[in-house]
Amino acid sequence: MSTNIEILENTLGYTFKDKQLIIEALTHKSYKQPYDNERLEFLGDAVLDLIVGEYLFTKFKKSDEGNLSKIRASLVNETGFDKLARSLNLGEYIFLSNAEQNNGGREKSSLLSNAFEAVIGAIYLEAGLSRAGSIAIGLIEKNHKEISLDSLFRDFKTTLQELTQARFGITPEYKVMSSRGPDHKKEFEVAVFIEDKEYARASGKSKKIAQQESAKQAVELLKKEK
Amino acid sequence: MSTNIEILENTLGYTFKDKQLIIEALTHKSYKQPYDNERLEFLGDAVLDLIVGEYLFTKFKKSDEGNLSKIRASLVNETGFDKLARSLNLGEYIFLSNAEQNNGGREKSSLLSNAFEAVIGAIYLEAGLSRAGSIAIGLIEKNHKEISLDSLFRDFKTTLQELTQARFGITPEYKVMSSRGPDHKKEFEVAVFIEDKEYARASGKSKKIAQQESAKQAVELLKKEK
Asked: Where is it found, in Gene Ontology cellular component terms (chains A, B) (predicted)?
């Protein structure tokens, strides 16, 4: 059984009128009740897409829809919501079966992310878009130091470093493999090495952009290897 | 230049306070203005996902999130929005370049669907979710006779028949190829033929389900062939 839901409500800054609604949002399907949080997750997923979409639409008035989509995709995904769920200690409050609990359910990204979506869906149902929006955006702003296209790129290098340190105990090395074109239109080719093995190679208008792109590819590769 | 926007506002049942907003929603990027409808389309896309998601969430209280997603996907897509856009004669009002116009731009599904999303995004920005929702749902209910999982299936057979009649002047033929299993757990295998050529084959717990699934596959195949 979970700890007191009031503590979660305090952390969220929202008190549910209908306690059954928050219980449903916190109920994993393994708990075998006549309800679970999957329908609320379906709703919350769309609520969060709109909340974050509108936030970025307003914040980045000069960004085209391609860049808005990219930034949103970096925030609205399992890893992003898992982070927000953990900031609320959501895992402690989820109702799940003993089997799922023993299987590390309270620590699973998918489970945490889904429960977070369901909680936002529940707030939306009871209090509307604006209230759900201020709670979700508050959490996002607190848990993401900077929200921009630049920070997305920076994140790939940070993510890669975190991954290689955890897995190999070392930091990745970036090497400029070639550069071509006149000064005002240079293209740099950068490769990223981990333990002297090349993991990815990418080109860009600056070394920084090429590094970031190669880091992104290496992260994807390492995640697949795992 | 487009015809009078007032007529569109009458059809929509919504009068814009900020006329620039509806002009932006109707401006294709080919029109070469400092603005176009792509950012509003980004917003409207998320607005429609939530509007239709919540509508289905409320309408189908017993449906799980998998079925809700399927029904939504059948409504929230280019073909679905193209239908709604045409019901508003949206093509007549879109601002586009002469080149795009001569290229049949006013009849393009993608262009119409994107403009529809942008118009809903614009109404949302000015009047909020509830107003955008009642307008969008009104259009959806008027243009889709029945909204349910059953009607989705039926739609595949109808769609296939429309396609084959337009392209080959004939109707598709369904044949039961095999059935197996005990009576209470039978599986039927059905193939769909067009001009005696097998286009797709699928299995299901009833002939109807297998027909519907094979029709779906044949539709996808025919759309690729084109």
From this structure: cytoplasm
Q: Is the pLDDT of residue A100 over 90?
A: yes
The alpha carbon of residue B19 is apart from the nearest alpha carbon of chain A, in Å, by 19
| Per-residue confidence (pLDDT) for residue A184, from 0 to 100 | 77
Cβ B42–A65 below 8 Å, yes or no? yes
Contact call for B46 and A54, based on CB within 8 A? yes
Give me the half-sphere count of Cα atoms (radius 13 Å) on the Cβ side of residue B53.
Answer: 25
Q: Which residues in chain A touch residue B38, judged by CB atoms under 8 angstroms apart? A: 64-65
d(CA B205, CA B183) in angstroms, rounded, equals 10
Same domain? A95 vs A121: yes
Q: Which residues of A fall within a CB distance of 8 Å from B64?
A: 38-39
Cβ separation B43–A49 shorter than 8 A: no
> Domain containing A176 — which CATH number?
3.30.160.20
Is the confidence at residue A21, as pLDDT, over 90?
Answer: yes
> Which residue positions in chain B have pLDDT lower than 50?
1-2
B133 shares a domain with B50 = yes
**What is the mean pLDDT of the segment spanning A88-115?**
96
The rounded distance, in Å, linking the Cα atoms of A193 and A175 is 8
Residues A67, A87: Cα–Cα separation, whole Å: 27
Q: How confident is the model at residue A201 (pLDDT cuts 50, 70, 90)?
A: very high
Same-domain check for residues A165 and A108: no
